[in-house]
Amino acid sequence: MNRIATSLLLVTALAVSACSNADRFGSANGGAAGAYGVNGSPSDPTSVAYFNQTIGDRVLFAVDQSSLSPDATVTLDAQADWLNQNTAYSATIEGHADEQGTREYNLALGARRANAVKEYLVSRGVSPNRLQTVTYGKERPLAICSAESCYAKNRRAVSVLAAGAGA
């Protein structure tokens, strides 16, 4: 076997061995990612997974609206309670819109939706320095189709948590 073939086999073996360690991020041994990844366990009431799945990380809006529905305020009340109990987390509130309308209109609508959520959370006692807003308009759809069922899913504001900020 010549040197090139030997070198190629050695590099391939190293590359494969680097990809074979399932615990390379330390999740199985109490690493920073925890047993369920960076979001934690859905059964841990202090975890991001619990927030996303049990509390609910998003609220939906009616067509061309940025006012909060009664269903949205129920979810946001639970988000505010959770954020007030878990002060190590901050949140970025993402405002989204459906594909109808111009890009500029939907960016503005997404911003109004994100701000409506932020203002509501602040009114429920969450410190404003723990909340940021961003608008994506229609650029990041959750559902892709030209039907009302998809549009309804895309008219949303999502609270995305981050640890270690703003307490």
Number of distinct beta strands:
4
Helix content: 40-55%
- The CA-CA distance between the termini, in Å, is 62 Å
Radius of gyration: 21 Å
The H/E string reads HHEHEHEHE
- So what's the overall shape? globular
- The helix count comes to 5
Description:
By secondary structure, the protein is of the alpha+beta class. The protein contains five helices and four strands; from the N terminus they run H-H-E-H-E-H-E-H-E. The protein has helices at residues 3-19, 48-56, 70-85, 103-123, 148-154, and strands at 58-60, 89-96, 131-137, 156-163. It has a four-stranded mixed beta sheet. The protein is globular and about 70 Å long. The model is unreliable at 10-35 (pLDDT under 50). Belongs to the Pal lipoprotein family.
List the helices and strands and how they pair.
Elements: H1 3-19, H2 48-56, E1 58-60, H3 70-85, E2 89-96, H4 103-123, E3 131-137, H5 148-154, E4 156-163
Parallel strand pairs: 2-3
Antiparallel strand pairs: 1-4, 2-4
Main attributes of the structure:
167 residues, alpha+beta, four-stranded mixed β-sheet, 5 helices, 4 strands
In brief:
This protein is an alpha+beta fold. It has helices at residues 3-19, 48-56, 70-85, 103-123, 148-154; strands spanning 58-60, 89-96, 131-137, 156-163. The protein has five helices and four strands.
